[in-house]
Amino acid sequence: MGIDSRKVRMDFPVLGKSISGKPIVYFDNACQSLRPKQVVDKIDQYYLEFPACGGRSGHSLGRRVDEEVKKSRKTLAKFFNARENEIIFTKNTTESINLIAYGMRWKAGDSVLISDKEHNSNLIPWQQLKEKGVRLLRFRFGDIDDFESKLDRSVRLVSFVHTSNLDGTIQPAEKMAKIAHDNKSPVLLDAAQSAPHKQLDMRKLGVDFMACSGHKMLGPSGTGLLYAKAGSMDDMRPFMTGGETVTDSTYDSATFEKIPNRYEAGLQHYAGIIGFGAAVEYLGKVGMKNVSEHEMKLNSLITEEIGSEVGLLGPMDAKERSGIFSFNVRGMNYHEVAVLLDKTANVMIRSGMHCVHSWFHANNLDGSARASLYFYNTEEECGIFVDSIRRIAKLR
Amino acid sequence: MVLCIVALVVFAVLSIFSAKYRPLAAEAFDCVFRKMTLRKCETGLDQRIKGEIIGKLMMHNENAAGFVFKHFESISFAFTALFFASLLYSGYSVYNLFTLGTCDPSGGNCVFSPLVNGTVANQTGKPPCGLEGFVEFYGAECPHCLKMKPIVEQVESETGVNFTKLEVWHNESNVAVMQLHAADIERDCKFLGVPAFIGLKTNKSVCGEMTADKLKQFILENG
Fold first, then answer.
1. What positions of A carry a catalytic annotation?
2. pTM higher than 0.90 for the full model?
């Protein structure tokens, strides 16, 4: 069963608004998705009905927070086919990755293996380990042979992006995890762009860690999670310590909490966590298979129309690019294209290097304009986008 | 580059009045600085401004938008050149205003009245801008001036010549104008006082109480 766009869009009040008499066409979902009423209502509910501390206060409001946070963790665990104690709440993918980068006990000579098309969030944390004597190795994105050839005994961690935020291309995470495990290297999957768009099953993928953001998958801003396979973080050093991370303390020492609490320091973003749970609950009802298929259909439609008229980044086959259409209009700067789309047709896309500066520099490219789709986008909106690109291209 | 320079000046001025323009001014400054040091402007400010302008034009006329898009650099350059030219002229005019008492010493195009105090002499020998014909300098409470008032009105109605009347006991600007003619008045009247009548065509003057006939004769000789 496909997606009933009209019905779904009713849940996103912002899509009913217009600017200068024209509807909003939101194609910047890779940056942040819109939020349905159900998520906003859940956030409101926290602030209006039980705005208290979680994990410490025994009164009825505090207990309600605990219940809702637990429920949210359970929903997310189920969504990713994980256990509840494998879900650690963070504020975004970046924090989740840093949790591992600063938590692992590195020694000089260790290596981290990443791809050559990583978001800064999965590049800079590893670069910072250089001062500890940790080397950063690189393989060509999607090139399994190259990936395999770079694996050696020094590789203490393999960390790679699942779906590239730059062009939507996807790496075979399951296969790569198996290869890495054969080398006894644990795997961290940057799923910021795949978790919102396809069903991710942690057991099936077999990765040790997975990082994603709530705000890219209908959740509130400043929410994210780290999936850490049971036992994988037992020996790690908590990135942040303090309240909630310990069960007891003296002037000189502390007894740390069990996971996940050990890694969730201080008062948490309870409204966000609860909203995050509501978001994946909503996604579950829509169906991730439906989400993927819908995005692919829309991306194919756009690609068929203007794929050959613009400079497309990534393969021509839309099925290999998830919901991302990254492009350049010849003779025009990508920022100009983005501003013109916004000004003339309220089509909102992103332009620049999309936090993948390293790849653009290595490939002598300045940047690109990027349209990114989600399940609430429609064929009509794609039509507006295509027509607007053609109108803009005529300016040259 | 040119667009960033214009943006810097415009946003810097707007920043004085509104804080919301300050980040844009800072961005424009960064862009200009980077380009001046032969580095790339990384903020994309110029492209975004260009997009904003072309986008607005597109809403009205796509052909015009296309023309501006294709010649954007040249148009920006022309506007920048015009901007700097007008900036130079403005600076030159302000300099003239403070040193010569008029912003346009070569003609009557000055929109400002002389604002200098009485220390500035009339170095050009030209009338201050906006003044021509005959001028009467008077003091509001001066008894001689009050006596001359009906005589001046009679002469004005009989000759059709009107005096530009400048009060100098309370009005600093008018004092400054009188100072420009101080040498002429002292030469003809042997003192600098009121009422003083001057013909701006000949720079001749006459002072004190007098008959209507004498004032008419003065107009006749200096008109």
1. 355
2. no
- Under CATH, domain B134-222 is a member of which superfamily? Glutaredoxin (3.40.30.10)
CA distance B196 to B194: 5
Rounded distance between C-alpha atoms, residue A59 and residue B196, angstroms: 94
User: Which one of B55, B65, B69 has the shortest CB-CB distance to A339?
Assistant: B55
Q: What is the pLDDT of residues A354-392, one digit of tens each?
A: 999 999 999 999 999 999 999 999 999 999 999 999 999
Preferred mutation among A19, A332, A336 to probe B, highest tally of B CBs within 10 A: A336
Contacts of B69 in chain A (CB under 8 A): 395-396
**Paired residues of A83 in beta bridges:** none
ipTM: 0.72
Chain-centre distance of CA A301, in angstroms? Answer: 24
Tell me the domains of chain A and their CATH numbers.
5-30+287-393 (3.90.1150.10), 40-285 (3.40.640.10)
Tell me which chain B residues have a C-beta less than 8 angstroms from the C-beta of A334.
47
Minimum CA–CA partner of A337 in chain B: B51
- Measured between beta carbons, the chain B residues lying within 8 angstroms of A391 are 58, 62
Which residues in B110-168 belong to E strands, given as ranges?
134-138, 163-167
Cis peptide before B195, with omega less than 30 degrees from 0? yes
